[in-house]
């Protein structure tokens, strides 16, 4: 970089783009002249290119989202604060041209004040591709979603492991999809978190995610695992091993994402799903809350004149849980709230 920092940016194989089968994606974070060398390794050895240069000019954008130095809020590279307002907006993309996220939908969210979406993509590894190979149709769709979000200055919280893809039967129905997960070829759902063979393939997957989409300023959060308590590895396996797996992924992204995005992970939204272990592991504490959880709904389904409104109960739930998280954060960091 112009300031002298050295970056190690991985490339990736992209057979969906015949103009450039091997690609390196990179977003400079400093103005001025950058120098680069391309290094390629195959079975015959390693070769390096000559030194090349390019010039980065000023950008109208704020940069990448990171945790502020005081660990209390999010901000962009240039110091501008980031206050996320968004929602889950899953694409469910499996067949060509059948994704649920649309440009019109993003425009509608933007108009209503949203600045990010959270989603879990359909897994890139399928029973058809096998482990270590990625469905390029799905990858191409993700390229499109990232471009759409960048065009609208919207951000993405990427849920890497949605609980259903790690579950055989914990909650049943659409929440049990491990039977279609190629990782079942090397590990049971119960043993997934501690299986060494599965981890080898995961490391390759995480490297690919960073290489192909890590360049994008739209991506602001690695949402490692959603509702981990909805998986056999948690309910029937060793929960300490599950948390060690979370710690390994957190460490991997902290060490390999050159843009320093934060990580998070969650349990489900019941009042009792308080997860102090997870809050210690990930960069951002994630508390899912089902709005009216615990509310004494009348058997008639109708509120009487003396009954508390569920909306009031919901707001109080949020207030209490947020207060608990701030208190927990202060204890974990050694600071007073």
From TrEMBL:
It holds the Pfam family DUF5060. Residues 2-40 form the DUF5060 domain. Signal peptide: none annotated. Transmembrane segments: none annotated. Coiled coil: none annotated. SUPFAM superfamilies: (Trans)glycosidases. This is DUF5060 domain-containing protein.
